[in-house]
Amino acid sequence: MRIYFVVKDPSVRNINSFVLSLGKALQEHGCEVVYGLDRLWTDAVLECDVVHFQRPEDVFGHEATDAELSSLEHRLQWLRQHGKTIFSTCYNLKPPAGNNDVNASRLYDLLYSHADCIVHFGMYSRSLLLPQYPQARHVVVPHHIYDHLLSFSVSQKEARQKLQLPEDKKIVLYFGQNQNDEEQEFVSTLSKHFDSAVRFFSPGVSPEALNTLDPAKLRCCFCAADVVLIQQPDILNSDILPMAFAAGRAVVGPDAGNVGETLHEMGNWTFSPNDIATAVQAVQAALSKGAAIGKTNKANAEEHWSASIVASQLLLFIKTGNYS
User: With contact defined as beta carbons under 8 Å apart, do 128 and 162 qualify?
Assistant: First the structure.
């Protein structure tokens, strides 16, 4: 079986790490996996059994012209006429904040409306998209833990030494530059509710730019932390959550989207979006009780969220039309 991921070739910096790790796992299951954007527009795409779109922005970038959308629509129809199975992964329900381009929203709708299968990371997004796109099968898989790319084996002491973080303080890790002033103010206000024994630490990249961070430093950031904070109030999925679980860390995040759903299921802590009081309570509880939860997170993630397990679940559906 040949599966085609419509993303930049792995030789290009900043490829979607989720796809790269999943692709390696699929190869271990006996699949041929190909990447790239040009293949979509050539007859070589007919050599593939599954055409799997990831973020809609991968196809044209953050803006698309009317002509580009028309070309894509015809191409999707052409693929279905040739019996190709079209998958689309739901990372977001709509274009990222700040992108108000009408065609950006049309691009999302175009890919979802032509999909044979839409892959979700939680029941929350499935419940929203299922009524809108009933032609597709909607399946839920875990967000895998990047285990083909990252290992979180470094000790907390060693990680803090490498990052020059104090060993005698509690560390709350979050990822900024924050997306907007509102998030920046939220973290700033939240941190003021804790004394000097607690330090809020960010490596200086946004959640969307984790690929730009050196893997060794990224590993140290998670291993150095006591608690990982997801501060974005309007969020559906998060790459940070599975990484934190794989590192054995407790997570605090908004009670929103698939993120809130997963945190509840795993016994971690949530707060009402943009509500400082509930965020303070959640971080306090995580700092107090998070060590035990972190161990549970790690055990569960390694048992159920590996890239190999996610790959096997997807293959089961592709081959049989059944999902379990």
Answer: no
